[in-house]
């Protein structure tokens, strides 16, 4: 006699899937039907498992996904904790905009954390970074500067069954932050390659850690993000302040280029939208049109 249970895949280990259920974590194998359908369960998937009288269990069904992001992937991500470093690697508004656009496209909310500000000896440079980030706060992205405050608040921010994931460039301090939030995570932390000004990949697999009422995942750092699959005429919708302003554009479907009566261009002229955001929007349009990631990001 068999029985069924539902749960969330929290880890992959040597062909086994660890599934968090109401009974605890159950280690399972996937049925061969997934190979036939060319499907593969992913960490974060909500699944059904089948357990027989001998306690042997099999993963038999993947429930519908909200999304699937990253490499290796995490499914059903509802929120990203985006770690952007002040230095080593250096702070970049262009990279920040790429991350925000990508996650907006994936319909995932983002909270920003500026790491390594204590390593920045130039106080005027830190002040400039905070001024840059104040714009992102104004348009709706929560921004944290203090790790202690963030660590204290994250457990209450993660709601029931939500999956949060850490993201950001390699070496920004994601694993270090995870170890502070989840002290028993024991994730490896890596040294920075000063030659490349980027971190070494220290996270090679995805695992979900129980935090608050949901889960927090650590993922390998993204050294680049591919925006080329985005449809060119939809890109403007993934800049949240453009999307809000566009309701007052003269023409429906305005691309905010040379169209008359464009509210985005008006807010840009009035400095309600900052020039760097608009410049990055134009650069992303070119990237999508040409179908390739810029060389400096590879």
UniProtKB/TrEMBL annotation:
Gene3D superfamilies hit by this protein: Nucleic acid-binding proteins, P-loop containing nucleotide triphosphate hydrolases, Probable gtpase engc, domain 3
Binding site for Zn(2+): 249, 254, 256, 262
GO CC terms in record: cytoplasm
EC number assigned by the record: 3.6.1.-
One Gene Ontology biological process: ribosomal small subunit biogenesis
Positions of the CP-type G domain: 66-225
Protein localization: Cytoplasm
Top-level taxon of the source organism: Bacteria
Main location: cytoplasm
Subunit: Monomer. Associates with 30S ribosomal subunit, binds 16S rRNA.
Name of the molecule in the record: Small ribosomal subunit biogenesis GTPase RsgA
Lineage: Bacteria, Bacillati, Bacillota, Bacilli, Lactobacillales
């Amino acid at each position: 006699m068999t029985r069924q249970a539902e749960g969330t895949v929290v880890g992959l280990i040597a062909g086994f899937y660890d599934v968090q259920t109401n009974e605890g974590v159950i280690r399972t194998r996937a049925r061969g039907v997934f190979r036939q359908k060319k499907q593969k369960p992913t960490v974060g998937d909500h699944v059904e498992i089948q357990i027989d009288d001998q306690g042997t269990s099999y993963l038999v069904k993947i429930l519908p996904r909200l999304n699937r992001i990253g490499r290796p992937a995490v499914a059903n991500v509802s929120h990203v904790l985006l770690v952007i470093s002040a230095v080593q690697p250096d702070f970049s508004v262009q990279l920040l905009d790429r991350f925000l656009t990508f996650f907006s496209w994936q319909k995932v909310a983002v909270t920003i954390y500026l790491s390594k500000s204590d390593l920045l000896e130039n106080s005027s440079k830190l002040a400039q970074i905070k001024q840059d980030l104040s714009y992102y706060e104004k348009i709706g992205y929560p921004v944290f500067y203090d790790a202690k405050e963030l660590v204290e608040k994250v457990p209450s921010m993660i709601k029931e069954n939500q999956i949060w994931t850490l993201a950001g460039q390699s070496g920004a301090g994601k694993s270090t932050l995870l170890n502070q939030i989840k002290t028993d995570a024991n994730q490896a932390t890596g040294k920075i390659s000063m030659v490349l000004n980027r971190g070494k990949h220290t996270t090679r697999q995805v695992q979900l850690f129980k935090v608050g009422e949901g889960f927090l995942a650590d993922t390998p750092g993204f050294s680049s993000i591919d925006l080329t699959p985005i449809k060119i005429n939809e890109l403007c919708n993934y800049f949240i302040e453009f999307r809000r302003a566009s309701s007052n554009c003269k023409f429906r479907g305005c691309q905010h280029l040379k169209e008359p009566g464009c509210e985005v261009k008006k807010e840009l002229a009035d400095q309600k939208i900052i020039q760097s955001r608009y410049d990055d929007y134009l650069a992303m349009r070119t990237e999508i049109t040409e179908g390739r990631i810029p060389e400096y990001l590879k």
